[in-house]
Design brief:
The structure is a homohexamer. With about 270 residues, chain A is of the alpha/beta class. Chain A contains 13 helices and eight strands. Chain A has one domain: TIM Barrel, CATH 3.20.20. An eight-stranded parallel β-barrel of chain A has the order 1-2-3-4-5-6-7-8, surrounded by six helices. At the A-F interface, helix 3, helix 4, helix 6 and helix 7 of A face helix 8 and helix 10 of F.
Chain lengths: ~270, ~270, ~270, ~270, ~270, ~270
Amino acid sequence: MSKLLSLKLEKGNTIYGTCVSSMAPLWSKAVGNAGLDFVFIDTEHIPLERMEVAAMCQLYAAQGIAPIVRIPSPDPYKACQMIDAGAEGIVAPYVESEEQIKDMVGALKYKPLKGEKLKAILEHPKTIEPDLKGYVETYNRGNLCIINIESIPAVEKLDELLKVPGLDGVFIGPHDLSVNMGLPEMYDHPEFEKVVAIIIKKCRENNIAVGIHFSESPERQVKWISEGANIVIHSSDIAIFSQQLSKDINKIRNSIGDVSHQSTGNITI
Amino acid sequence: MSKLLSLKLEKGNTIYGTCVSSMAPLWSKAVGNAGLDFVFIDTEHIPLERMEVAAMCQLYAAQGIAPIVRIPSPDPYKACQMIDAGAEGIVAPYVESEEQIKDMVGALKYKPLKGEKLKAILEHPKTIEPDLKGYVETYNRGNLCIINIESIPAVEKLDELLKVPGLDGVFIGPHDLSVNMGLPEMYDHPEFEKVVAIIIKKCRENNIAVGIHFSESPERQVKWISEGANIVIHSSDIAIFSQQLSKDINKIRNSIGDVSHQSTGNITI
Amino acid sequence: MSKLLSLKLEKGNTIYGTCVSSMAPLWSKAVGNAGLDFVFIDTEHIPLERMEVAAMCQLYAAQGIAPIVRIPSPDPYKACQMIDAGAEGIVAPYVESEEQIKDMVGALKYKPLKGEKLKAILEHPKTIEPDLKGYVETYNRGNLCIINIESIPAVEKLDELLKVPGLDGVFIGPHDLSVNMGLPEMYDHPEFEKVVAIIIKKCRENNIAVGIHFSESPERQVKWISEGANIVIHSSDIAIFSQQLSKDINKIRNSIGDVSHQSTGNITI
Amino acid sequence: MSKLLSLKLEKGNTIYGTCVSSMAPLWSKAVGNAGLDFVFIDTEHIPLERMEVAAMCQLYAAQGIAPIVRIPSPDPYKACQMIDAGAEGIVAPYVESEEQIKDMVGALKYKPLKGEKLKAILEHPKTIEPDLKGYVETYNRGNLCIINIESIPAVEKLDELLKVPGLDGVFIGPHDLSVNMGLPEMYDHPEFEKVVAIIIKKCRENNIAVGIHFSESPERQVKWISEGANIVIHSSDIAIFSQQLSKDINKIRNSIGDVSHQSTGNITI
Amino acid sequence: MSKLLSLKLEKGNTIYGTCVSSMAPLWSKAVGNAGLDFVFIDTEHIPLERMEVAAMCQLYAAQGIAPIVRIPSPDPYKACQMIDAGAEGIVAPYVESEEQIKDMVGALKYKPLKGEKLKAILEHPKTIEPDLKGYVETYNRGNLCIINIESIPAVEKLDELLKVPGLDGVFIGPHDLSVNMGLPEMYDHPEFEKVVAIIIKKCRENNIAVGIHFSESPERQVKWISEGANIVIHSSDIAIFSQQLSKDINKIRNSIGDVSHQSTGNITI
Amino acid sequence: MSKLLSLKLEKGNTIYGTCVSSMAPLWSKAVGNAGLDFVFIDTEHIPLERMEVAAMCQLYAAQGIAPIVRIPSPDPYKACQMIDAGAEGIVAPYVESEEQIKDMVGALKYKPLKGEKLKAILEHPKTIEPDLKGYVETYNRGNLCIINIESIPAVEKLDELLKVPGLDGVFIGPHDLSVNMGLPEMYDHPEFEKVVAIIIKKCRENNIAVGIHFSESPERQVKWISEGANIVIHSSDIAIFSQQLSKDINKIRNSIGDVSHQSTGNITI
């Protein structure tokens, strides 16, 4: 149960995951069967609280599947709670400033330091006593610090953001990014594709892992990997279930001459 | 929120459902999007208890999706509990005798009668006082009494079983049936297919609704409908998620030259 | 937190309770404010499971309010589980035979004896070794054994039922009784009133505590007390909330000229 | 399940609701029976978390009863979480500044915009691109933005507060307001009544819906409606249960000569 | 996550476990730290339901700690439910007949066979078709069938009981056994010790694993191992916490001159 | 159920508690058996949410054991939520400024005042109207305001911090303090011991109650009491269980010649 995901990334592996929103205890077998490296547990949009997240983190971690938790806002207290609950990585949503990343690094790489002392170290990392440095490195080994890049202001200052020491990865949020660009849900728009390609490229140049959380066809993931992405965050349990169930039921209806059902909406996260 | 599934069956509709094992509250939208008539909540094999089943029943029923609950054994007390929790139909597993069906009919069509009085009425249905008859008919309107046929002894006495007054439907359990036949999981075996066809035929001759709970390709459901089945119980959330996730992830792995993952087992219910 | 309800009954007090179906932790203050002696937790009709019942039992007992739990059927294993969870009394529903009462007495007065030894003692109570008798008496002190009388067959053999050693109380179930009499929900019918009066009278002659669980006006309880009842089981949280909310809202609607809402049904337990 | 409460308000209807603190799944029937338009789910004072609120929101919304959720503080992240959980309206407690309202409007009317872009739009609403405007309007249709006015500083700047574009409604918090005025719980005090009347009048002049959450007699609601209020938030499940139970039990005690119980406190929210 | 406990027993290892009643997700680390082979999850006396047991089973199994579940009564349906939830072994309480053991063997070694076919096979094990035999052996590999011996009638027919094919282990229940012997809680009584020694001896002669669930000093376990026991079921979380907390607090009180607290009772399971 | 812990402190008693992380309902008996005055419920590090904390607070308070809740950050909204849930005292972690303490005092001693009015009163406590002062004193009677001192910056300004009116107690956090001092987990280091002694001394000089939360030997608590501490916060359920279980199991292993298990880590909070 040691935290191995960071090692896999260091070795240059592509790592694979999906977003899981159901806490049914037998769910973890489905994820295990697919040979995934991590699950993405999104507490920004999915109603899951600490007790549920803790149970999920402990269960997936015990199976060797790293639990990566998105917190609702870039709040270092929330990050610490999720690490205590068993998360191996934290995703902070909608990050647009170096300050926000430093806060997350403080929570994920210097735990249990807090308050004035932590503030001083984050401003001048070299001032930390060597013994203490060793202690917090061991204490926080394997904790991954990941941010969501999902807005133009973030893309514009990406060079600065990616250079904050302690940052490990970037998850691109396609829905928010497309809306922020004024191209809502137009994931095929060349401007959108261009921005995604830029983010991937800059991340890899800065040795930051990068992936995009996308709930549609797996072919997209292949394309982004070809552009440099090394994290696959493929869809979610509820999107896969919803899309495939509708497809199957309509196939049956059509075969027997029943009227096909028009879905009233998409379920993605 | 009146119980409408029995009406749909009476009108000759084919009704559609899936098995749901996750109690995540957003799940019901996925089922609604697919235009389903009912959900099959299986408490025989899935760890779900009364509180969870009650929450699911209330939620699906409020959306106009009928909750059909399988109880762990043909126990009339359990059937009553699930009706009180909001179920619109009960599936009793592995039924092999008329006595078991009568017990279920007592729980589902004569509630709240119990004890000696109920026993007497089940033996001699005509002895019930007319006023009381009217009361219990109204009280239990729309409650569906469904049994699992999943063994050779049950098939051998199917004619008697299907004639018990009050029985509404049959769910064929393919796993148990195939094992009972000594053909475990050989769903393509001609003997297995023959027995399924016989059950479907006899049910429809006796005006009993019938379907088969199957977690693989939707094409099978089309075949069974062509043989007379009028209930589609297509797969389950966990089977669809597990199968499709593995397929998608292997597609990505193969495309980028990663080694494909060998699933260690099937997840069906 | 010793079990005091049995003492109150022995002293000749009238004891007061209500049926509670919500497990919201602040609920117990509402019950405390009304000065109740016990809560009636009904697991026959209300979806509440062991975990929830245990939490409720521990909380009410800690406040000096005795938790009395109705189990779904006269099953001694269920009775033991609820005593282990903290219940001070068990109500077995729809009892019609001495055998059923003996089973409950075995579970409630001879715990942890079971199996062949218990069977022998229940048949010949005097054969128990004196030391063991003392041990189980202390071990089970304060456990109340209560049965539901709610059918004509039970009324007909009431004299025998009430004489089973170890029986402490009777709860009359008005809904089931009225249906069993062929007078569904006709609680004002003279035949129904007569049978209730007989049950109350016989119970008190046999020194058995008795009450009736009724979800309408408190005046009825007064009438039954005047006939000898010494347990008040007045309504339930959901019935009181539902009835009073409808009354209040309609009062507001009427006052301002809005159309009054026609309730679509009664909520009682 | 479309969000209809805002439409009812636009049409000039008086809308009716109550505060619900129990998550028992059968509760929603009691609310439905009373013909209510909405439930008020208060997460400021009642211990209810996201999982529970999501289950309640989905269930009430499926029945056509709009779930309105009060968050613990005027925090836009919390507002987004509750909308994701299924809320149709958010109540921000103890608002005293235009900035707080703008934050809520950002969360409820411009979702999923965030960060710098949202900040710019909230400051200069006309700068939003027309296409994007259309998208977020559709995306957020029916989300109600409600604030609690419950202090003198808020009343003093009410004209400014009520003019923030996007604000839909005001809930008056009588307990906090009375304490803030130095007239704790003196709801009959003429000064208190005067301030309530002023808030109602100003709201309606600004075309803002308004109501007052009050746990005592329904006659008060009638009075406030006559002053212009168009939202009735009548009492709560726990207050109605506690008050009526105490009344009924004391009626029984008095009738039979038992000592009446002195309640040790009020339960309101 | 394959079921390994049966292998460890076959190899002649002594296996170690404790009883766990808390479902806090971090608990499993405490059990892991002690190097245990299994946890004993007791649903006979502890209020834990299927959902909780399933979560615990999945979590402990994922860590390589086998979950062994005691069901409330020797009910094969309950046994199947717990295996479906992830249990690797089932303990049936208070077994006194060969019939009860056969029922458990049916549930644990012949799953998913049921009904008439299973009955016939249990009576004449050799009549099972060879292919089907292979299938159910694979399907049920590693499922442990354990019974509680805790009464004199059971001891008297121990030779017959231990010879039922498919039985794997015996847990001695000291509390029930001592009460059944008329020596309640007299665990030092020579008669009690003698009976325990006999049970251990007979089990090992029949190649049945055996242990005793005891919540006091570890020295007792050493003694029973010396007599032949090969399963250690040492105490429970709540007994260890309760005993040690009282000891520590009294040590502090005594050291500083505060009055020592007299515990009002023992907490064991 | 009145809040008595503050009274015990005023009378000069040493008060005793432990940290409880399991919400199993029978747990409270274990705490009651040890004669404790309070439980420490830590929501900073332990995954426990409002629903669970509310259930625990109500249960422990009903037994006369005061629930003291640590919130994840010094956030007055969180403090109010926990008081509403039934907490009798709040611990704010890692406090380093007078402003933070004032925020907590506002939440705990002036509830339900908020916003501008509360701000003005906290700055100039004497400006509160006498009637209102009386009201909030009664309303908040018994609420304990406790802070964690666990850093050198806090120790350096301890004199100012301890003089903020309304502060009741200090919990020393040994882990954070030792790390902040650059002496991680070196609880025997003379520098660490010296700082603890200073904090204790200054607290008692300012009539502030003080204790240290420590998960190892009870002898330490005796030492700190001798230095002036008047609160004992001895270990936690999970630490006691983990430490004692490992000790017992290794004792058994060693006695029978099995290899002793090397624990892979400590479980403390």
